[in-house]
Every structure is written in C-alpha cells, then in structure tokens.
Inverse folding.
C-alpha cells in the first residue's frame, strides 16, 4: 500500500458555471504539483467537462482556460473517472477526452474511501 | 505547520545567482506553481530557482508548496510590477 497522499475531487458542475467548473482543476493541478495523487470524479453536469471539445470553451475570469488545466492535469499524471449513467443520458459515451475512464458507483466509493481527503464541487 | 518567514534579507536575495528564472508574469493561479514545479526538475539539488509573478498570491503559494514537498523557500522581493520568489531545490 502506498504512503502517498491521495486527493479525490468530485466535479458536478459543467460549462454553464465556468468558475465551479474550473476550480476543481486548479486544486487538482496544485495537488499534483505537491506530490499528492489526484483522482478527479465527474458526475451530473460535471461530465460535460471531459466531453471531447467542451473544455475549449470554458474560461472563468482570472483563471487559466479550462483546456490548459485539463492538459496540465493529464501531463502531471492525474486520473479522470467519469460516471457511466451520466454520460449515457447525455449521449456522449464514445466521445470523451483521452484518458477518461468510464466507471460506476462502486469505483467512486473505492476511490473516496481510500483517499486522504475528498473535495466536492 | 508551514511557516512563511523569509530567512534571507532583500539584499541577500538580490545577490543570489539563480540557476533558472521562471517568467510567470501574467499567468493565473495555479500557473506560477506549475511553472515552478517544471523548472525545479531542470536544476540540480542545492540550486536556486527564481519565479517572477504578477500574482501577489504566488509568494504564499510557493512558500506553502516548498514546505509541503521539501524545498527551501528563501523569500520574495519586489520587482517593477511583479515579485521575485526564490526557492532552493532540496531533493
């Protein structure tokens, strides 16, 4: 078992709320830069953030573009987990950003219960 | 608990020779931190990097990050419209 700290960040807001969509990625990138493992979980409208092509259109004032943060997150080694029913209901099961993994509730439970801390946005 | 005290005076900081200068002016949080992280991997243990940022939160961010990951935050001095923050790689 690893001694590395792990942060799970749940994102539930989509492009309609750019600030709430962006801050989870800001925290995730800062954690990865601090040698903390990060798993981001996307549920409800949050799944739109990892729908191919959508991050390019999200820009919260005074924050970096979401696409830049998403690229940084993946480059730093973060994991992206996406709620299966949430993307099925929105019709983009086969058009997620590279590296996004489709999962169901038990996987989220496993990640959350094994994390050092969990943030929910 | 992270301490944010600066162990070096402005005069001492200005006399430092940095192995790498990161120009993160105009970059929004967490940009300066991510740039510092990348730059740290390009210098040797014991060498100093210098981060230029126009975001006043950068100095506390870099100080907290240094304490978290085990580097040494030396302090911050004012430039013209930006701040210069100095960190020594320790691992």
């Amino acid at each position: 078992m690893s001694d590395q700290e792990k942060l799970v960040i749940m994102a539930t807001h989509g492009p309609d709320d750019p600030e709430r969509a962006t801050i989870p990625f800001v925290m995730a990138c800062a954690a990865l830069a601090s040698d903390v493992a990060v798993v981001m979980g996307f549920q409800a409208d949050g799944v739109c953030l990892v729908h191919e092509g959508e991050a390019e259109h999200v820009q919260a004032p005074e924050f970096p573009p979401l696409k830049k943060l998403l690229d940084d997150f993946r480059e730093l080694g973060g994991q992206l987990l996406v709620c299966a029913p949430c993307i099925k209901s929105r019709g983009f099961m086969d058009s997620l950003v590279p590296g996004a993994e489709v999962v169901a509730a038990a996987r989220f439970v496993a990640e959350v219960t094994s994390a050092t801390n969990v943030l929910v946005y | 608990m992270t301490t944010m005290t600066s162990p070096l005076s402005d005069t001492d900081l200005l006399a430092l020779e940095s192995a790498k200068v990161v120009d993160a002016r105009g970059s929004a949080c967490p940009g300066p931190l991510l740039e510092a992280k990348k730059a740290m991997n390009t210098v040797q243990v014991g060498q100093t990097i210098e981060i230029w940022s126009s975001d006043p939160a950068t100095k506390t961010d870099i100080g907290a990050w240094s304490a978290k990951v085990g580097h040494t935050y030396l302090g911050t001095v004012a430039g013209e419209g930006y701040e210069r923050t100095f960190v020594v790689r320790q691992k």
The CA atoms of residues 14 and 77 of chain B lie 8 Å apart.
